[in-house]
Structures are given as C-alpha cells and as structure tokens.
Amino acid sequence: MQVYLDYAASTPLKKEVLDEMLPYMTQTxxxxxxxxxxxRNMHKGLDQSRRNLAxxxxxxxxxxxxxxxxxxxxxxxxxxxxxxxxxxxxxxxxSEFEHPAVLNAAKALEKKGxxxxxxxxxxxGHIKPEDVKKAIKKDTILVxxxxxxxxxxxxxxxxxxxxxxxxxxVIFHTDAVQAFGYLDIDVKEMNIDMMSLSAHKxxxxxxxxxxxxxxxxxxxxxxxGGAQERKRRAGTSNVSGAVGFSKAASIxxxxxxxxxxxxxxxRDYLYEGLKDLDIRLNGSENRHPGSLNILFNHVKGDTLLMxxxxxxxxxxxxxxxxxxxxxPSHVLLSIGLSTQEAKASLRMTVGxxxxxxxxxxxxxxMTEIITRLR
Length: 374
Fold this sequence. Notes:
Elements: E1 3-4, H1 15-21, H2 37-56, E2 64-67, H3 70-84, E3 91-95, H4 100-110, E4 115-119, H5 129-135, E5 140-144, H6 158-167, E6 171-175, E7 194-198, E8 209-213, H7 228-231, H8 239-254, H9 256-274, E9 279-281, E10 291-296, H10 301-310, E11 313-314, H11 330-334, H12 339-343, E12 345-349, H13 356-373
Parallel strand pairs: 1-11, 3-4, 3-5, 5-6, 6-7
Antiparallel strand pairs: 2-8, 7-8, 9-10, 10-12
Helix pairs in contact: 1-8, 2-8, 3-4, 5-6, 9-13, 10-13
C-alpha cells in the first residue's frame, strides 16, 4: 500500500479543477495581454478568477495580484515594501519560525542594511501579540507573521497582531499559504494589509499563487518587464493556473465546515492510534485541521522516515522547502526542542482523500517499525 501523508507540502490536482483549466490550455488560448478576441477571452478568464479569489478573502478585485506561488509572494511583500518605505525606516519584524521564503528574504534585506527583529514563539508555537507590540519602533515599516505554521500547524492571532500594526502605522503581512482553504479569512476584519497565497496547497495547480495588497499601500515590483498585473508584476499571465486556483478555492469554501471537520477526525484518529508509542505532540492544540507534528522518543527521525518510505508511507521531517538540509528543523528549535528531539520529530498531514484504511495501515506499520528500532 502507498500512503501519502504530506499534504502540507503539496496536494494532488482535483479532477474538477483540471476540467476547469483544460479549455484555457487547449481551445481557448492566447496571451491575456493581447487586444484581439483570443486575448480578450483569456483576459476574461483571468479577470473572473481574480474577482472570485478576492471575494473569498473579503478583498476588492483590484487588491488581488497573481504570482508564481507563495515564495514569490513572500519575497515581493518583504522586498517590495522595504524598497518602497525605506525613507520612513529600515526596521522589519518577523518570527523565528517563518517559512524559508520569508526568513531568507529578510536575511537578504539585512545584507542591504535593513534591521530585522526575530520574535521567538512560545513552547506551543504562538507568537504573542504583546511581543510584536514591544518590538515595534519608530522606524518599523513591516511586520510579517505567518498565519498557520507550515511544520507544526499552529494558528496565530493575526487579527490582534494586525490591529497592533494598524495602531502603530506599520504594514502587516501574513504568509497564509497553509491557512487559505482551511480557515475562514477576511482581510478587512482581520486587519491584514498584505497576504500570500498558493494554489497547490488546496488541490490546485503548482506554479500559481497570489498576493493581496490593501489599497493605498505602495510597493515596488521585484520583476521587471511588461505591464501585467496593473504594472506591478511583469510576465505573461498564467490564465489556466489562475482559473484552476479560483476553482480549487471555490471547492474549499463552498464546503469548508465539512471539509475541516473530516480532516480533524482523520488527524485525531491517527494521533489516537499512535499515542501509546511514547510520543509527544509538537505545537498547539489550536492548529491546522489536518496537521500533526510528533516527537518519537528514543528513535532517530531520519531512520524512521526512511523505514516508513520503504513501507510505502510518505511523511516529512519538516518543510519541503528545507529538504536536503542536514540541520534540524528551525521551527522545532524555535519552540524549545533540543537538536536531538527535533531530529526525532516527523510531520504528518492528512488530506481529503486519506482513508481510514490507510490510517490503520500507517498505525500498524509505524508500531512495528518503532518497536524494532527501539
């Protein structure tokens, strides 16, 4: 049996999404920037997709910009704001356990003379709003705190953090790649100024994402070229990707309550089946509905990972974007785990198509493997 439990890394494309995309890859084709009928038809699909996605997050259609994915959105948010507001200040605040796209963008800005404050999460992975408030200075121009952590699934109080930023005239960005399609989001109500999204985490296509930018915010492009995306993001529009992104998001939000309820049931079923194996849950109970990050005491995580792979079970030791690194997860170290504990931890995420038969198989095989390794 082959079992995929790495839905936080990527999800399969749903058939309904592919069916929506195919016409824009075959009979309806052309460049959405062209003024002839072919181009206009493509632009219509792009415009409808933009309007739908913006509506789902409580934004205006002209506040939503398509990008190549979450990584580009994060980079654009940090680097574009840094360049646009450098006359006001050069201080940026992020958390210690952000996605590498935010962390490495911040490090790149540090090399250019910007000051970055890294806020440490508590032992359950929460960023305390009061810590954000204390870190804000006169020259602070941006706060970037991820909505849902990609490794331990902890959900942040973005509404309060956003309110603090609004009171201090500081732009608030959140990486919502793991939150969109799993939680209700209203950017106005939650005081969010900028938000990064990605399609392939919600059963949409790889290679398309989005960045919400509140009206009135100045931001410079990080890609030079044509006048696409209202002169803010150059490059030929990925219309089929945008259409797929929109369809995938609609499927999620049309049945969000039931989808998240079923994910939680599967996640908790898996945890209940493993909890007698001398394990510990990393992070908070207030987390992504499909996410588990577990410390397996007295077992080497990489050895367990390889044995599970041989048994046909796909899990991960952290972010897929950190794959290949020999270092322990920076997320787990930030919440107080030792290097040994971090290396003995695995992330498992269930998905819409995960069956209870598959979960029973995982519990059985994991019990066998851990017993043998110990």
